[in-house]
Amino acid sequence: MLVPLAGYLIVDHYGKNVVHIPPYLIAERVDTIVKDGKTTYDTVYHQVKDFTLTNQLGEAVRLSDAKNRILVVDFFFTSCPTICPTLTQHLKRVQDAYEKNDTLIQIISITVDPTRDTVQMLKRYADRNNVDPKNWWLLTGDKKEIYDLARHEFFVNAVEGDGGPDDFIHTEKFVVIDKDRYIRGYYNGLDTNDISRMVNDIAVLHIAKDKKKPGLLKRLFSSKQ
């Protein structure tokens, strides 16, 4: 127990100067600001919009229902025989790593085959893979909406399409979204090294999320605790 605690203390104390913090991605525009005769430029980054889809329990859930959590998002389908089983297996390991702190992250797997992936199909897939609905949603809904989200909110596919019967998206990417809904990283969900990098980045985002938060030693030994 002392080894990870010592590592956390080092990151918590020195993180601002040493630890790499995942950057903001997907710049939407650059605003020009003129103040006191000086011109500066401010980059405005994309924030993922709120949306509503249906999870494996048949519940309508919104992105905003996962408030104050780091999000890990991927796109899959239950009948996929190639990359999806590996993606799901790797996400299960991520979920297991946060088993005792399951309010820190929210895993969101959105089907790209919503016609066949009904709530019942998602529930069977979830049960087969030991998916805990407390912090892992398997989502289905309208295909056009899902494909629009994949292309224009999460940016996992650069090829345009109409979300029609012949349109299809298949990607190995995991997307990490911070608590303010900014995209902070893309990771190859088939690469265990990249998964380790993702888990690392999630931990850093949790530490860096509140600069006013007191250091861990003060939180552990404060008389108010």
- Class by helix and strand content? alpha/beta
Helix and strand succession? Answer: HEEEEEHEHEHEEHH
| Strands side by side in the biggest sheet | 7-6-5-8-9
Q: How many distinct beta strands? A: 9
Q: With helices defined by DSSP (H or I, 4 residues minimum), what is the helix count?
A: 6
> Terminal Cα separation, in Å?
20 Å
The fraction of residues assigned to DSSP E strands is: 15-25%
The residue-averaged pLDDT reads 86
Helix percentage: 25-40%
The low-pLDDT segments are: 1-10, 210-225
What radius of gyration results from the CA coordinates?
19 Å
Biggest pleated-sheet summary: 5 strands, mixed
Overall outline: globular
In short:
This protein has 225 residues and is α/β, with parallel strands linked by helices. The chain has six helices and nine strands. A hairpin with a 5-residue loop joins strand 8 (173-177) and strand 9.
What does this structure look like?
- This is SCO family protein.
- Belongs to the SCO1/2 family.
- With 225 residues, this protein is an alpha/beta fold.
- Helices cover 31% and strands 23% of the residues.
- It is built from six helices and nine strands.
- It has helices spanning 2-14, 84-97, 119-128, 143-152, 192-208, 216-221, and strands at 27-35, 38-45, 52-54, 60-62, 70-76, 105-111, 136-139, 173-177, 183-188.
- The strands form three sheets. It has a five-stranded mixed beta sheet with strand order 7-6-5-8-9. It has a two-stranded antiparallel ribbon with strand order 1-2.
- Strand 1 and strand 2 form a beta hairpin.
- The longest helix has 17 residues, at 192-208.
- The protein starts with a helix and ends with a helix.
- The model is unreliable at 1-10 and 210-225 (pLDDT under 50).
